[in-house]
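Suppose a colleague, Dr. K., hands you the sequence of a protein chain of 189 amino acids and asks what its three-dimensional shape might be. Before reaching for any lab equipment, you can write down a predicted structure in C-alpha cell form. Begin with the sequence itself:
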Amino acid sequence: MTAQFFFDVGSPYAWLTAERIEQLLGTVCWRPVLLGGIFAATGRSSWARTERRGAGMAEIEERAQRYGLPAPVWPDPWPNDGLYAMQVAAAAARSGRARDFALAAMRLAFTEGQPLSDPTKVRIAAERGGLAAEVVSDATSPEGKADLRRRTEEALAVGVFGVPTVVIDGAVHWGDDRLETLAPARPQS
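The predicted structure, expressed as C-alpha cells, is then:
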C-alpha cells in the first residue's frame, strides 16, 4: 500500500520530511491538510508560539544539517497565516501536483526565508511547482475552500493530529523523527 504523507507547507518539520520521504519510502501520496484546522479540532496549538520556540528552531536546524539539507532560513514572520498557501496546495493536489507545489513552497519558506502568508510568494511557489494559473485561481473558490476542509476532516478521521504524519496500512506515524524507522529493510551488501 502507498504511504500517505499529510503535510502543511508552513511546517518546518513537514519540510524536513518532504525532502527525504520519497528516498526512504518510494512513491507516496501527498495529502495537504490545514494544520490550523487540526489544532482547532484537537485543542492543540503550535509549539512555535510557546516558550519552546527557540529550542524547536534549534532542533530543526540541527536535523537539517544532519540530513544534509540546507540550513533553514526562517521567514519573517514565522509562523504566519498559511491558509491561502494551503488552499493552493489542495488545488495542486486536485491537479496531481501536490508534491511539486509542496516542495516548491516549503523550499521558498525554509531555504529562502519567504513568508507564505504573502500571496505573491505563494504564486511564485505555484509557478515553480508547475501549476497553471487557472489551478491557482481555483484555490479560493467555494469548492476549493470546501476541498481543503474536507481533506483536513479526512485526516482527522484517520487519526492525524499534527504534521508531518505518515499513514501506512492504517497505522499513523507522527513526526519527522519517525521517518527512517518506516523505511523498508534494505538488503545488506
